[in-house]
Prior knowledge:
heterodimer, A: alpha/beta, Rossmann fold, six-stranded mixed beta sheet, four-stranded antiparallel beta sheet, 10 strands, globular
Amino acid sequence: MIQLDNVSLTLQDRPVLRDISLTLSERRIAIIGANGSGKSSLARLFNGLVLPTEGRVRVDGWDTAADGRKVRRAVGFVFQNPDNQIVMPTVAEDLAFGLKPLRLDADEQARRIDGALARYGLESHRDHPAYLLSGGQKQLLALAGVLVMDPAWIVLDEPTTLLDLRNVRAVLDAIAALDQRVVLVTHALEHIRDFDRVIVLDEGRVLADDTPGPAIARYLAALA
Amino acid sequence: MIFDSYRSGDSVLHRMAPGPKLLSLCVLGTLLFFFDEIWLAATAFAAVSMLYPLAGFGPAVILAQLRPVFWVFVLIVAAQLLFGDAAFGVVLALRLAALVLLAALVTLTTRSSEIVDALIRTLAFLRPLGVNPARVGLTISLALRFLPVLARITGEVREAQHARGHGGNPVATAIPTTVRTLKMAHEIAEAIEARGFDD
């Protein structure tokens, strides 16, 4: 469970999030809102990448301000641009990078890497330079890099924005197949019709928090 | 480039630990420069070339390693011809060719991560001086990973500026490239933190 208690966030003297209280426990949660509404900042709070200026964020009981290591292991984060998330030269090396902090034995590391490569059809690219992958393959590798760490939650910040339609479908299929609880930040409303919960942000506040139909309707009405 | 070099395989050289390979490269590479005899240089070149089949590589791979430095060999021999010692020019070219082939063989049979891991282990003795070998290793890996990305960004910016009629202005390319690179660096740092590197 991710719990936010009266969370506010100010970045460079600009209020980004204002007094937000939420309890997240559903399997599929979407966060939508206009540019600058605070979506990405809210998502970054879940993984401890950003700490609240006021209030408290807890993940499965761990405080993001005090228990950063445990929070990062519980919440994986997939960024919009996979080029900036893949940090190692080759595909397999990048998967191994996320496993280093877990200090697993070599057999378990190999099992997880092989499993992730097979799951996303990247076996034949194991030793290939990551920069040679297609956009969709890079985003799947970024997702695999998070999955090998076996987090309970996966937060994805606009993961399909830079992709063509075929790769969007591949990434959405991969997200749909995840066993983990998912928080998806997106502008693509058609991708979240079957989600359990949609949170609409507007100027750093929660405008709506409901099932997809009513939440999206409220968002569209606010835009009109 | 090193990040393109590794070719998977199961040869003795592939299975060999990176430390001994790098040490052999240093020792043999140094020894090459202790002898001036042409037959020794030729023997060294032949011996190194014969290691390639041992790693499962054919003549095409050997030629691919030598092709980028071919004109250097030509220049060396031509320069020595001018000084009236063509035979020594051949010795120098053979030495350099042997060294290039030996170094390439290491990178062809060793993943860059294995080389970096070996470096991290080697630098462990610097830990008491405040050097974090893991961070040094990460820095090298990041450089290997992002050099082609930086090249692509520079190309994209140059193309965009060219389209706007600023193709010949280096400042018009440098400023957006720097801004994009700094933004990218911030996002990479976030990604590394998100994956728990410092944990």
